[in-house]
C-alpha cells in the first residue's frame, strides 16, 4: 500500500486564510460581488491561483439549486483567435466559480435563437453567452431560469466583427510613419467578406486623407500572399511608395519578399507593417512590425458581461482597445535601415 496520503482539496477557508480575508468575502468574490475593492479582489484571485482552488459545484448545486455551469455559444467555423479567447473566458469563469462548456451553433442563422431557447429550457446552465448575433433574440433574456446574453464578436462563419474588427491601430501606424517622413503609401487589402478587412482598408484611406498624405492605391489581395508579392514586383520604379500597410502578417511577409525580389532593402527602401502578430513575424529578417489582438482579454470581457447580467448589474465598462502595435525592424524613416 502506498504511503502517500491523498492530497486534500483546497477549500474556500484555505483561500480566505491565504488571502487574509474572511471566507464570506471569498464567497462574495465567487459570486462576482462588485462591492469588493480591487486590492482585496486581486489578493483572492492570487490565492485561488496559488492553491489551485476549484469550487465544489455539486455541493453548491445541492445548496442553491445552481449548476455552476456556463455555456459559450459559437458559430461553426475555425479561427485561431478563438482558442485564445476561450482560454481567457475559461480563466475568468473559473475564478468566479463556474465551469464553461462550448456549444457550436451549426443550425441555420434564422433557427439559432430557437435552438438557444431550447437549450436554456434544459436547466443545465446558469448562464449562456452567445458570441455571435442571434436574430430575434434581445441582448439580454431569461428563459427557463437560464440567463442568456449576446456578445457579438464573430459573424455566422466565425469571422471577427465588433471590437475584434476595430482597425483604429492602423491610423496610429500611419501617423507614426508620417512623422518619420513617409508621404506615399500602399495598402494590401484582405478579403472584404471579412469585416476586419473592410475596416482596415477604410481606416487606411481615411487616415491618409486626414493627414494630407498620398495613397498610391489599394491592392485587393483577398488574403492571397502571391498577389501582394506580385504587386510589389510590378510597382513602377517612380511610384514614390515608401510604406506598405498590409491587412495581415501573411500579406506583409509576401510584401517583404516582393521587395527582396527587386533587390530592395526593408526598411530602407520600403517600410512594411502587418496585423495579427503571427509568431513567425518576430523571427523574420527584418522582424515584422505588426498589430497584436488581445483575444484572451476579449474572452474575459465577454464572461464578465454575462456574469453582470446574471447578477442583475449593468454591463462593465469596456476598457480600451483590444489591439496594440508592436514596432519592429520592418519600419524606419525613408532611406534608413
UniProtKB/TrEMBL annotation:
CDD domains: HTH_LacI. SUPFAM superfamilies: lambda repressor-like DNA-binding domains, Periplasmic binding protein-like I. Keywords: DNA-binding, Transcription, Transcription regulation. One of its GO terms (molecular function) is DNA binding. This is LacI family DNA-binding transcriptional regulator. InterPro entries: HTH_LacI (IPR000843), LacI/GalR-like_sensor (IPR046335), Lambda_DNA-bd_dom_sf (IPR010982), Peripla_BP_I (IPR028082). The keyword Transcription regulation applies. Gene3D superfamilies: 3.40.50.2300, lambda repressor-like DNA-binding domains. It holds the Pfam family Peripla_BP_3. Residues 10-64 form the HTH lacI-type domain. SMART domains: HTH_LACI. It comes from the Bacteria.
Amino acid at each position: 500500500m502506498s504511503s502517500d496520503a491523498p492530497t486534500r482539496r483546497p477549500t474556500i477557508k484555505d483561500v480566505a486564510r491565504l488571502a487574509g480575508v474572511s471566507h464570506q468575502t471569498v464567497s462574495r468574490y465567487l459570486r462576482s460581488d462588485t462591492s469588493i475593492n480591487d486590492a482585496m479582489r486581486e489578493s483572492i484571485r492570487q490565492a485561488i491561483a496559488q492553491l489551485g482552488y476549484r469550487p465544489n459545484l455539486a455541493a453548491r448545486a445541492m445548496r442553491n439549486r445552481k449548476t455552476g455551469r456556463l455555456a459559450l455559444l459559437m458559430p461553426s467555423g475555425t479561427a485561431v483567435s478563438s482558442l485564445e479567447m476561450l482560454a481567457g473566458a475559461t480563466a475568468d469563469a473559473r475564478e468566479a466559480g463556474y465551469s464553461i462548456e462550448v456549444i457550436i451553433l451549426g443550425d441555420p442563422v434564422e433557427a439559432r435563437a430557437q435552438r438557444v431557447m431550447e437549450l436554456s429550457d434544459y436547466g443545465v446552465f446558469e448562464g449562456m453567452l452567445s458570441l455571435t448575433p442571434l436574430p430575434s433574440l434581445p441582448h439580454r433574456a431569461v428563459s427557463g431560469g437560464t440567463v442568456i446574453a449576446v456578445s457579438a464578436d464573430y459573424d455566422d462563419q466565425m469571422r471577427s466583427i465588433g471590437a475584434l474588427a476595430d482597425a483604429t491601430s492602423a491610423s496610429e501606424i500611419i501617423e507614426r510613419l508620417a512623422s518619420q517622413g513617409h508621404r506615399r503609401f500602399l495598402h494590401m487589402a484582405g478579403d472584404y467578406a471579412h469585416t476586419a478587412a473592410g475596416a482596415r482598408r477604410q481606416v487606411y484611406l481615411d487616415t491618409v486623407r486626414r493627414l494630407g498624405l498620398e495613397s498610391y492605391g489599394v491592392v485587393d489581395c483577398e488574403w492571397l500572399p502571391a498577389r501582394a508579392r506580385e504587386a510589389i514586383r510590378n510597382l513602377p520604379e517612380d511610384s514614390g511608395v515608401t510604406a506598405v500597410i498590409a491587412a495581415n502578417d501573411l500579406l506583409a511577409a509576401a510584401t517583404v519578399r516582393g521587395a527582396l525580389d527587386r533587390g530592395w532593402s526593408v526598411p530602407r527602401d520600403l517600410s512594411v507593417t502587418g496585423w495579427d502578430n503571427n509568431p513567425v513575424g518576430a523571427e523574420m529578417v527584418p522582424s515584422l512590425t505588426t498589430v497584436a489582438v488581445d483575444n484572451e482579454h476579449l474572452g474575459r470581457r465577454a464572461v464578465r458581461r454575462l456574469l453582470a447580467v446574471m447578477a442583475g448589474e449593468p454591463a462593465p465598462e469596456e476598457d480600451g482597445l483590444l489591439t496594440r502595435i508592436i514596432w519592429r525592424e520592418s519600419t524606419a524613416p525613408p532611406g534608413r535601415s
